[in-house]
Design brief:
There is one protein chain. The chain is mainly beta. The protein has a single domain (15-159, 167-180), classed as Pnp Oxidase, Chain A. It is 10% helix and 36% strand. It has helices spanning 53-60, 74-80, 103-107, and strands at residues 15-16, 18-23, 29-34, 37-40, 43-49, 63-68, 83-84, 98-99, 111-112, 121-122, 127-140, 143-155, 176-178, 181-183. The strands form four sheets. Strands 3-2-6-11-12-5-4 form a seven-stranded antiparallel beta sheet. The protein has a three-stranded antiparallel beta sheet with strand order 1-13-14, with no helix packed on it. Its cofactor is FMN. Belongs to the flavoredoxin family. Its EC number is 1.5.1.-.
Length: 199
């Protein structure tokens, strides 16, 4: 195999898209798409744009929800991609973003109340996490690194292995963001021996 040296503008090799909901200072809610994500046990690590409303909100009111849209919802995600809840629009975003107070209306999605945190969940998403921010680290370029503990998980019964608390990876289809394109996951090619959902 011969490789070439490249320097892509982005390194989104394939990460899940999520919608983060937070509470604004006036008690209304902000909704934003993101794809910088990883998880370790019950902790999430999220990358949020420093000059976005979501970052401001979690620093002031450290709760959020993370809702994972299935691939058919990618147009709703894209409708949110160029709007911001910040007014005035920050200078770094002024060329591409426009202010929208009601981002839920822009998305065409709906909210449903959370049980343990103030921000609501996105009703149409089949997998939703309620979380409390445990640490937020600013200064990583244009991003705020947010560490949040998941305190409740909501799952559509259709994606849960019957009689268990396991998400069925064959039934669950996250939207994958790869080099600025949206994808469904492909066919299963294998599994870890420690998986509790084989067979």
């Amino acid at each position: 195999m011969t490789h070439v040296v490249i320097r892509p503008k982005v390194l989104y090799v394939g990460t899940p898209v999520f919608l983060v909901s937070t509470v604004n200072a006036d008690g209304s809610f902000n909704l934003a798409p993101a794809s910088s994500y990883w998880a370790l046990e019950q902790m999430l690590v999220l990358g949020l744009e420093t000059d976005g409303q979501s970052a401001r909100n979690v620093l002031e009111r450290p709760e959020l929800t993370v809702s994972f849209p299935h691939p058919e919802l990618w147009p709703a995600v894209e409708r949110l991609a160029d709007v911001t809840g910040r007014d005035p629009v920050p200078e770094a975003k002024a060329g591409r973003y426009r202010f929208e107070a009601d981002k839920l209306a822009v998305s065409g999605l709906g909210f449903e109340p959370s049980e343990l945190v103030a921000p609501p969940r996105v009703a149409e998403c089949r997998l939703q996490f309620e979380a409390r921010v445990r640490r937020a680290t600013p200064g990583l370029g244009a991003y705020l690194l947010v560490e949040a503990e998941v305190v409740r998980v909501h799952a559509d019964p259709a994606i849960v292995v019957p009689g268990t608390e396991h998400v069925d990876p064959r039934a669950w289809h996250p939207t994958i963001y790869s080099f600025r394109h949206y994808f469904d996951i492909g066919a299963e090619v294998g599994w870890r021996a420690t998986s509790e959902t084989t067979g």
